[in-house]
Amino acid sequence: MKKSSKVTAVILSAILAMSMIGCGSSAEDTASDAAATDAVTDEATDAAASDEATDAADEATDAATDAATDEAADAAATDTNADLSGSIAMAGSTSMEKLANAVAEAFMEKYPGVSVTAEFTGSSAGIESLEGGSVDIGNSSRSLKDEEKAAGCVENIVAIDGIAVVLDPANTVTDLTQDQLVQIYKGEVTNWKDLGGSDEPIVVVGREAGSGTRGAFEELLGLEDACQYANELDSTGAVIAKVASTPGAIGYASLDAVDDTIIAAKLNGVEPTEENIKAGSYILSRPFVMATMGEVSAQSEPVQALFDYLKSDEGKQLIQSVGLITVD
Hints:
This protein is of the alpha/beta class. The chain has helices at 2-22, 27-83, 97-110, 123-132, 146-150, 178-186, 212-221, 236-245, 274-279, 301-311, 313-321; strands at residues 86-92, 114-120, 137-140, 153-154, 157-167, 175-176, 203-207, 231-233, 249-254, 263-264, 266-267, 285-293. The two termini are 47 Å apart.
């Protein structure tokens, strides 16, 4: 549009100049003026066309330069990714299985020269493996204990998770107070009718000793060594399956593991959602820790690259995609 306006302006200026010269002239002068006008118009059109061609050439050059720069940057990034090689071994929390598997898959796709393996043995077992030197990262779904930190383990929090209190799908009691939850797990309340529900025994389901989820749940509610479990299961999936299939059952599990086979209870009238956890209104949340022996900066290049990835926008999107909350 600007180029067309430029041509029009030049032509109009030429015509105006010729018309001013031609005022009061004879027919021969008028014809001469018309010829001059045509010549000026042609010259103006040619000049404008030349300018347009120059502008087009400049734009093409700029586009080519930008494309070449982008290709060079992509090639450099690809070369860097391809140059990184080695292995990363993780072990620990079963609650972190979905996150660990997603991270391993995405990271190996980004860095094809790096192998990432993950085992799900429980938080305490994972930290023991880290201390023993058999893994690079110990995954823990609880904060590290003082003795673990004293042994050299460094707590690297990569995400925040909510702990959902889960009920069998037929239960009509879907909102519990903190006191009621504590009474249930202490064995002080044993029938749902005492909480406004049906006359049905409460089946208390929990995790095995050493589970990060169990440790966090009991610590947050002041229930250490006080729970009266009917079943102690060794994985998040086992808890979900047991509660879903057992009338009157209650359990706890990582929020990202909740599905439509069970009910996630409200606590003190608050639903277990990301928004409520961030706001601090939902009482059960805990960190997801990827512990290392020593600071991250002292680890191998692949391990450092993995933590850099988790802090990147791409890594944060992955954390959110598995139902967790980013720490930033």
